[in-house]
Prior knowledge:
The structure is a homodimer. By secondary structure, chain A is of the alpha/beta class. Chain A contains 15 helices and 30 strands. The first copy, chain A, is globular, with a radius of gyration of 27 Å.
Amino acid sequence: MSAKKIVIIGGVAAGPKAAARARRLDPDAEITIIERGRLISYAGCGMPYYLSGEVHKFDSLFETTYGVIRNEEYFWREKGCRVLTRTEAQKIDRDKKEVHVENLESGEKYVIPYDKLVLATGAEPFAPPIEGLNLKGVYKLNHPDDAQKIKERLDAEEGGEAVIIGAGLIGLETADALMKLHMFCSVVELQNQILPGMLDEDMAEILAKKLTDQGIEFYLGHKVLKLEGDEDGNVTAVVTDKGPIDAELVVVAVGVRPNVKLAREAGLAIGETGAIAVNEYLQTSDPDIYALGDCVETTHLVSGKKVYIPMATTANRQGRVVGDNVTGGNTVFRGVLGTSVLHTAGFNIGRTGLGEKQARDLGYKVVTALYHGFDRTHYHPDHGMVLMKLITEEGTGRVLGAQALGQGDTVKRIDVVATAITLGATVNQLAEVDLGYAPPFSTPIDVTAHAANIVRNKVAGLAETITPRELKEKMDRGDDMVILDVRTEPQFNMRRLKDDRVQLVVLGDLRERINDVPRDKEIVVICAMGTRSYEALRILKGAGFKNVKYMEGGLQAWPYEL
Amino acid sequence: MSAKKIVIIGGVAAGPKAAARARRLDPDAEITIIERGRLISYAGCGMPYYLSGEVHKFDSLFETTYGVIRNEEYFWREKGCRVLTRTEAQKIDRDKKEVHVENLESGEKYVIPYDKLVLATGAEPFAPPIEGLNLKGVYKLNHPDDAQKIKERLDAEEGGEAVIIGAGLIGLETADALMKLHMFCSVVELQNQILPGMLDEDMAEILAKKLTDQGIEFYLGHKVLKLEGDEDGNVTAVVTDKGPIDAELVVVAVGVRPNVKLAREAGLAIGETGAIAVNEYLQTSDPDIYALGDCVETTHLVSGKKVYIPMATTANRQGRVVGDNVTGGNTVFRGVLGTSVLHTAGFNIGRTGLGEKQARDLGYKVVTALYHGFDRTHYHPDHGMVLMKLITEEGTGRVLGAQALGQGDTVKRIDVVATAITLGATVNQLAEVDLGYAPPFSTPIDVTAHAANIVRNKVAGLAETITPRELKEKMDRGDDMVILDVRTEPQFNMRRLKDDRVQLVVLGDLRERINDVPRDKEIVVICAMGTRSYEALRILKGAGFKNVKYMEGGLQAWPYEL
Lengths: 562, 562
């Protein structure tokens, strides 16, 4: 039997991973990676950190942990895989099982035969249909070359005003990097919220307030019409439907689209999301052709629906599966939770599973909780705040998703919830996990357990709650109610809701001043983070008050003026 | 109906938590907390951090997150619970349902009637039966007063040589605190390893090496015979069966024992572990008496066995359960995983579930993996190393436990594994969790997935491995073999095994130099962390070599001389 020919189109992340796994399983296979670009196997996610200077050396993005550059030679010598860079796959001949390629340097065209073909063609940044994208000072951040270009520009000219188009994950990571370089950052977003693919509107609103306090300026619900430049062809402004925004540097980060051209032209099935359709073995509609990474759609493990969520983690996990299956294995890739996390402007942000809106749109009845607290014991100097929203299914108690933000370690909690969701946990099970505790790491009752306990209290009828947004709507509507602030007097004097309906009764005084609280009105209890207002609610309920709610998340989660 | 009388003995952690929950559920109950000491509701786990100065204010250990001191007045005003400090519960009269107490200040004795009684009597540090415990300069660290006393001593006199008796969690946290105060720390331990209740011997050995490099001196397998002092009654030495160790300050930290005297005298059942026996509702053998926290035994969720593992997390979770049940609820406490974590000398250490030895002793057949890698992308400046040992059941693939150590974020991974074990995850499921990834937080394939993949590779017959300890034994035995080091030349020249059987073939050269490796000998491949040696093993296997293993964890996990 002659050696199996495995050909992989795409040399960034998913392709090389599949190649390396295949090599370890089949020492005799001929493995060829075809890459249009000059660079391979790079850490695309590291680009914002290279831009900011946190990653000093460009080469770091291409190095193994032991300092060897992952170039063609590395793949040949260490992995036994042939890599053809600057080589474009132009056509797949499925009948002859050949890939038609062109060497982009020499112009030479030839065919490469395959037994198994792997498509790891990735994704490309979406270019919005507007004028001015070619002006000087306009960039994207999808490829290390992009990072290099921005860096060269910033090295040549002092900062100034940067406008980022798109308030998604890459947009906000870019803003973080540019702020570290002392640029003034504005972010323009078509949707009415930041991180629209990631956070529910209420969480996004809270985060936007906090990031605004850190100096990022948001233009939400603004449609970009064009980019304007001066006579030298340098960009000067981002023109939106609500007016122009001055700009010396523009980064376009409005999302990516899967590269499916080759697959489509080869007649392979494209899924409803627009990405390549694959089965659980990551086979395309042609059983000898596999596809993985940023060019395929996958299954959401909670909803069971097809989704397009390009992620480095998915690409890597899929690489192992494809490596198995192209060498005769039978490994399954079940799907994703859409977990995503980012760091920007001192904040750690994450989500996993379904969002509240997503869940409701899918027909779930949900119970949510908003917990605001510390990631570590509050007396430990490293503590930081975490706001977590937990989304569970009414009735079954199944955990559907979580979103978290704060300067504290939110991502650990997202990982715990992701693990719980993967295994079908209920809110009771999540609350009862025996997590690790010591003061530098967590609190005796961790964030996830607190959030789960809030859900349990709500389900048990112990806690009726209202969100900051709902309270704001009631206030604006002029509802008759008492907003009972139970914080300490110094806290109240420093920062409070400016509203005639606010009444201060410090929690410790509430039992003896209970008759100062009107029994005939709706009571909304508020405090800093939600803990004391829940306690106060129980006191009021215990004293026979009927219409009492407390505001989840507390004033720390209040995204409006104070 | 008159108000229910709930009496709680013990005011440190579990008792107040149960009281607060009970209050929220039953506004009318009379809730009384009896505490022998002067201080209540304190953060016992914070003491090492107060000692080190990381926590500046003593009061921080008693404060709520909003700055109110948790004293008698706080419990009365905010929680509606009466707290009697300096009041000792001396006898339980179960027939009359009364607790006999004495006010330790006034000497007054009286009885307190109860409908439901809760025992939260905690634990006491074990005092070894040796001379010299009363010498000046000898301390324990169990109560905030102990921390105060050590601090007063250190404020009065400059550091010097501290000896800690006991290499358990508290012992190592204390060593960390004292080292931050520039003391020279020795730790004496009766067992042949550090953290004997927490880590397997192999992991403990690796950690001990790393902590020794940080300056902690360990005396393992040393039995303390007595403490010696000078004519002024100041401690001068810890005398062991292998000789004396100079000491200017001694901290005794040889573990705690549950306070069960009151329960035992009341005729309540004591469990096989020596702690109070309770059912899943945390009821003692008297259905009107509940017990929780550091005085009770609980169930290990993996083994199903009764265990005594006092932890603040357990106390808090149990507080919620007891609060429910004394007010008519029916809530179950299922048990624990024995999760514990600590920080010392720059290292983060954790374990959850069963250890390897523990699992084998219980009759499990296990497959383990040792993974060594980074907690974040290696190009991100904040990355740190993590060494994780994963313990799984052969055949079922069920995850049984994990242990981790390193300067990186080990605890996040322990939490993920704890969540997975709670929900009965298999190693495949653990490998496939869609965890959050961005360069400041993790790597595209996280530590837990890497460790799970090693188990999967071993089970699939792709990787035969050897541990550092096993290789050392083979070397010492004089086994005929080739120790094939596949690192780069600079790495090899800097630090390597000094042994004639070592042969250097850089991984990238292995394919072309394959004939330099003897085919008739046993080959043990080594590298820095284990990644390259696995790759080399696959190359050798692919070339027909039969007897090849690689060393898990790599030389970074080598605890012996180099």
